[in-house]
């Protein structure tokens, strides 16, 4: 009896203590449909799951909970966006009712590979690399780290490629700071705060197009360690020449990456050959900031020879004095409006000293030229970009992008041509003002409509002056000097509607209709002077205007099966061309259709075959239309057809590629056949002192080319990495020189690269590498080939904050005189890090103090050797402070 | 612009395109002979059914979690020793129909394929506070006792499928890792694919000899297990495989059902 009482008492007691609280409710779609089998999770404030349940067929759930306090109820259901509500449980209420409405999600579950503890992981279209696993401790910047990652190649100018595809942008925590000027970020941002480097394949620049469009674009996203989020951090480095006078390198970064607000500031000034900006022209002009209409910006009509030796590492040949400051901030104005501001201001002085000996041998034409350039350029660049993104809803977005950039270059050249000494000056100004607006509407998850509008103006006036006359008897005038005043302008306006519709069976229909209008003009005044007189040679003056209207429709349909997709495309263009010059006034309204078909067959996740065939008709550009000679460089002119022409060719290609899913190896073989019906070539009258080139249309001249590419990245081979790349490429092109027949020129190039590097965290490491280049040119007149070999060795020593690095390089040019064939370089760097905050470093560059570097080149008209001056020996002491 | 509505006509959509999911689990067995084998869980979301497939053609594997690289097969066994064991079908199956709460085991026990109806037992999960990231997926820990084994599992609420390896299910998220406390069995999800072809889940029903009760099945399994591995007179593992033919029956390499008998 007493036992029973105790049991009853215990029961009563326990009921009052653990009085069960119920949480009930329903889960529905926006359209009031019940969602069964959704998981309902109760989490405490610490994020721990304390209870769960599922909805029944009526979308109803009923959960018991025993605790009091603050909770979060979360609903998860595949095909819907998670929804959560707060739940505060107190003593008094026993039943809580929470109703949920889930929004449908277009996101499918990505295929994902779970690679426990592995530094490389793949989930859907994203490959994540653990930044720390690819760090050796010697890296300073993001670029240094990217170089360690399999599949990623950093080119000399800082451009990043993944599996041979140039990336679109580098984002930080999914926010894009510099767009195609990402080298500003990768060359400057420290790598230490990075958590992951994510390669985003099938990337869409427009976030609403993800999953709608077929994309083979790639972008890189960097994630930041938690400890670096929401704080300002950066570094400042000051360096000054020790023995060598007035050498300096100063650079600083300041940044903040919070979830919403992001900012990156970077400045640098140096005269030690370092390029901290990289190739950012794409940011200035046709950037991919927003999905818009693409159109070519102008290019300068004249350039002077300030070439540097491309074979060498950039810092050996860059004799510079550069300053720049760059800033990018992303600020949310409201929940739906985000503004990005990017500004760049840069100054650069570049020097190039070279001596070129060239032999030209074409048919009966043979001559030798000696040319010495002492070249100096002053460059100023200014760029400002404003991007506003307005997310009207989850399916609609408006983006407005404005760019304004101005540039100004002055080139001075002391040119000695076959012992005639002259001074040249070329001034180039450029302004570019670009306005883009794009409205994107996505509906039913798989369809999108884009309305794009763009307007830009671009002006590149140039002025050229030379204080002597080098062109022999080209003109019937005894000239002492000459100049050329160029106006070169373009205005563009375009409108386009772009539909992308994905069928239930994944097939994709695309349809675009638009109109683009180009108004361009060239005006040149080419003058020859002597003491008494001046002349304006006929046929060398230009006053032309070009109006090009293009009404077009493009459509494509992609049929998609599990591992095979084929797409057919067609573009119809109605052109409205008008050309007005001193001599003529012509208008043409040609119409053409460009059909194309592509297929991609994914034999397995690692192997694919891509093929395509297209017929391409194209309007020629204005320089090919112009009917007078325009000066292009000190001694060469070119001229177009005198009217608009439509060129056409057909190509067919087939590529097989195999790659490991984490890109540790890759191999591809491609074949390309091009049938040329009407294409642009040139007919050149080449003399020792001048060259006059005019465009011609050639028929035929079919070309077959092959390429072969392989990349191997072996990790963990005795704690080391081996990279092997091989390339083979053949190309064919045609031209006419000095009343020759059409000449067929074959180019063959082979290139092999082997690298072996060790990856110990401490102690001694090395990187050994060798590159072999084999080139061959075959023309009707002659055949030439050369072999170049570059070997490099880098040795590192790391221990307790001490980093030592020694670099030695050997360059071999097979066709130079024996005493000029071999070139050697040695550099040395050391640094000491104190408390991970202060870094003292000493850099000795070009220890052997090599002053000149000679290279050998071949072309279809002869060969040349060029000696370049190099950045001479210096020792730089730097102090870096991280905060 | 009449084309626009025309184009819109083409757009028929199915929002719930996610119908099938395939999860590959590696299974690590540690009963005298460490074994690694690969299993698949096929989830048919439309019909609320799962098909668990054990690829019995397995290797003998020395699984050491601390070692990053998988070491070479230990011992002197042939990699394809299952071939010696003799089977009629390459895989064993566990079929769940969550709508009707029916469970069926299809197993090849030495060239005899049996269909075994099993009871649907709701698993009572204890939720733990621990969470961890498996890649970038947040996983929470839960545990249960099922068929005589204490299971510890990690499930991912962001993958809202209440299924798991073998017979484990009922959590508000896919189970990515599961192991018994004694360390005998470990399942680790290695790959999740968002579709599979129906041929992958075809059951070779024509090969089934007969249906036996779960009790008969356990007795048969018990007999095998005790004799081969636990019996005092049991020969060394190496010998088991050399004498299988004489004994007129063969052991299958998948021991998960054996060890987790109720």
Characterize the largest beta sheet of chain A: strand count, sense, and whether it forms a barrel.
34 strands, mixed
Terminal Cα separation of chain A, in Å?
76 Å
Low-confidence stretches of chain A: 9-17
Structural class of chain B: alpha+beta
Distance between the termini of chain B: 70 Å
What does the average pLDDT of chain A come to?
88
Beta-strand level of the residues of chain A, as a percent range?
over 45%
The total of beta strands of chain B comes to 13
Main sheet specs of chain B: 13 strands, mixed
Multimerization status = heterodimer
How would you explain this protein's 3D organization?
The complex is a heterodimer of chains A (883) and B (262). By secondary structure, chain A is mainly beta. Chain A contains six helices and 52 strands. Chain A has a 34-stranded mixed beta sheet that branches. In chain A, strands 9-10-11-17-18-15-16 form a seven-stranded mixed beta sheet, with no helix packed on it. In chain A, strands 1, 4, 7 and 8 form a four-stranded mixed beta sheet that branches. Chain A is globular and about 110 Å long. The relative contact order of chain A is 0.08. By secondary structure, chain B is of the alpha+beta class. Chain B has five helices and 13 strands. In chain B, strands 1, 2, 3, 4, 5, 6, 7, 8, 9, 10, 11, 12 and 13 form a 13-stranded mixed beta sheet that branches. In chain B, a hairpin with a 4-residue loop joins strand 11 and strand 12. Chain B is globular, with a radius of gyration of 21 Å. The N and C termini of chain B lie far apart (70 Å). Strand 9 of chain A pairs antiparallel with strand 12 of chain B, so a sheet runs across the interface.
